[in-house]
Amino acid sequence: MTVRHLSRRVWLAVFVSSSVALGAFAQSPEPGALPPLPGATPVVPPPAGLPPLTPVVPPPSEAPPLIPAAATTPVVPPPTTAPVVPPAATTPAPTVPTATPVIPPPAAIAPAVAPAPTPSGPATAPAPLPMMSPMPTAAPELPPMGSPGPMAPATPPVFETKADVPSVTTTSATMKPATEVKIGKPAVEGLAAYAMALSEAKIAYGKVNDYSGHVVHQDRVRGKLTPEQTAEIRVKGKPSSISLRYVGPSAMLGEELIHVAGRNGGKLRMKPSGTFGTNGFLSVDLTDSRAMAHTRHPANEFGIAPMIDLLERQLVVEQRLRNAVQVSVAEYTYAGKKVTRFEVFTDRAHALRYAYRTVVYMDKETKLPIRMEAYDQPTGAGSPTGELLES
Length: 391
What we know:
Layout: H1 3-26, H2 106-109, E1 168-170, E2 179-181, H3 190-205, E3 210-217, E4 220-221, E5 224-225, E6 229-236, E7 241-248, E8 256-260, E9 268-271, E10 282-284, H4 304-320, E11 326-334, E12 337-345, E13 357-363, E14 369-375, E15 388-390
Helix pairs in contact: 3-4
């Protein structure tokens, strides 16, 4: 090979290498274009027999700096892909039974009543609470949970409060002979029932305009008890008026008492017994001795309404004086009517006391009083229940 051929080959190799470098520089991708393939440079192989000129050809590692970094961003996916696939640990599981052990099993409270741990293992029991009393020291004496023991006393028998419950007999080795327990009807508060009955009587009488019938009364006048007196009674509400005509006893036959509120100067028209005709009437005061010869009350205090007022006034006086009032209640039949019998006791004697014992019969149908009895204070063996004042 001549020098000419050698120089030509050298020049050709230099030309090829410089062309390749210039081509790579001219064809560098713009921002956002794809980089050249790594195998593009060895497309033109060097002539055979010549050694590779490594200093002339730039190394392949220098080509990547020519590619902007922004070109590789769309190719590589973002590192954080957690929102695409949610992790299984973030999903709540409220329906799993083992996830909510709110109530501890019975074994968790066993240390509170179980015996102290044995010395074979380390003491792992928690320290007692600050507010706990010294009672846990006696816990080892209790039997384990679920085992029978003498600690639970026998449950006492429970009796129902019914009238039809049979009698029960209980015996015990430490008790005295058998004790019999009988259940009866519950006690009735007599005073409250009596006050309620008086209120119902006032309401019932408020619906009455007028009435007529017979009144039978007996009074103790000047220390002497009169015989029973029977009179025909007529009462009107408007105007308030009352008429009494006696039909017995024979000594009072023909006597009449008439009073009309607001008329005749407030006086009573009276016709004595044994006289006949309208000419026998006299105008007297309500408290005249001739009109009250056989009674403790004037004529305008006869009838149902004055009786209710008298009983209510008696109860009010005793309550205002803070005196004890005892009332017993019972069911009776009087004059063919079902009644409630109230027996009222006012033990403390005072000037305003009406009577020591008062007996009242209330008609269950009409709620009105149909009989009243008043008794004086008992004086001893002669009158253990007290003398009758009036009825």
